[in-house]
Amino acid sequence: METNLDEFLDVENELNQRWPETKLEPSLDRISALAHVLGDPQTSYPVVQLTGTNGKTSTSRMVDALFTRIGLRTGRFTSPHLQLATERISIDNQPISPERYVEVYRDIEPYLAMVDSQSEIRLSKFEVLTGMAYAAFAEAPADVAVVEVGMGGTWDATSIVDTRVAVLTPIGVDHTEYLGNRPEDIAVEKSGIIKPGSVAIVGEQTPEVMRVILERVAEVDAMVARFGSEFGVLSRSVAVGGQMITLQGLGGVYEDIFLPLHGQHQAANAALALAAVEAFFGAGPERKIDIEMVREGFASVVTPGRLERVRSAPNVFVDAAHNPHGAAALARALESEFGFRKLVAVVAVMSDKDAEGILAALEPVVQELVITTNSSPRAMDPDVLAGLAVPIFGEDRFEVRPRLVDAIEEAIHLIEDEQSGGGIIVTGSVVTAGEARALFGKEPA
């Protein structure tokens, strides 16, 4: 096993010599060239592709769980990972093993050099990972691939597929340096995943964003179904370990579904996932998917790092919220579903994110804040974050602990006097959530 781990780390090191996922050159030329020399594996299975600002990974996992329960062999590609790169490429709703990850990389490695030599810019890390995923799915072989974009849509490396169902989760502002400052500008890029003849499953959007999406639908002659119109959440109630929901699907009403996830946003993600799977099978009025399969599929959903409880007594949750939209959804869920007498947030963010927006979204539901950092080179210095926190939280409601493990210990200390009424949320970035999971002994999933 040690040899395998060494080999895995060697591959990760080789991938890290390439452009990181934060450095982009908008073009599908390189990934198209790689796919071509690999035999265009992405054409050998139908694809459900997802974009949006938040909710992509949770919705991808739900779509995967439903397909798996129905009996299809799935491939799933998501990013970024929480703890281990193998989480990004799943077959049959399970991450591939480190051994298989190495094997897929070594299989395509000779072709990487070939493509690199033909371009001024080498393949990026994300482009190589996309090639690995598409090759692994073809070899499985997958009946369907569930593919989350890395960033954007039109020129994202994943978009060389001929998407059958395009899912657009709510679109807000993130990655402004690449995608623009206005949601409607971002929507132009993201709506590029809607391909001619596909079905667009569209989450809740502002009118400006919806207009852009519908223009794209008309332009490519796609079909469309919208949250709140053709499908949606009819009811939801808090349940132990999650929520009970009733969904309006494209084929009818689906009642008494237990979703083992917290928050209104996850119920909305479930409605999107169900509609996407219905659209894949051509469901329409009076043509429903078997309700028991739907119930069993949703009951099996696991979404690590999404308001995930990693400890009880005291209650410690981790959440990968890394922008104001995600932090606001997290705050609403914490307030509406838990009712802690005292909530302490442990926050570490990336330096290129809207840290003030994240803190402002959390402030109304958080009594005290512990500022820290994570191991990423892009992490914001905790003293800089502390400076941003002063006008939002005031001088007396936050502490600074540069190491994440110390910050969590401090948070536990701050709620010790609350008996069972206290809670801790560790959030601010995907890296923060992943490192917190590891500290609490959670395995990659």
UniProtKB/TrEMBL annotation:
GO MF entry, a single one: ligase activity
PROSITE patterns: FOLYLPOLYGLU_SYNT_2
Catalytic activity: (6S)-5,6,7,8-tetrahydrofolyl-(gamma-L-Glu)(n) + L-glutamate + ATP = (6S)-5,6,7,8-tetrahydrofolyl-(gamma-L-Glu)(n+1) + ADP + phosphate + H(+)
Coiled coil: none
Keywords, alphabetical: ATP-binding, Ligase, Magnesium, Metal-binding, Nucleotide-binding
Signal peptide segment: none
Domain Mur ligase central: 51-277
NCBIfam families hit by this protein: folC, Tet-DihydfolSynFolCMyb
Family from the record: Belongs to the folylpolyglutamate synthase family.
Alphabetized PANTHER family for the sequence: DIHYDROFOLATE SYNTHETASE-RELATED, FOLYLPOLYGLUTAMATE SYNTHASE-RELATED
Protein name in the entry: tetrahydrofolate synthase
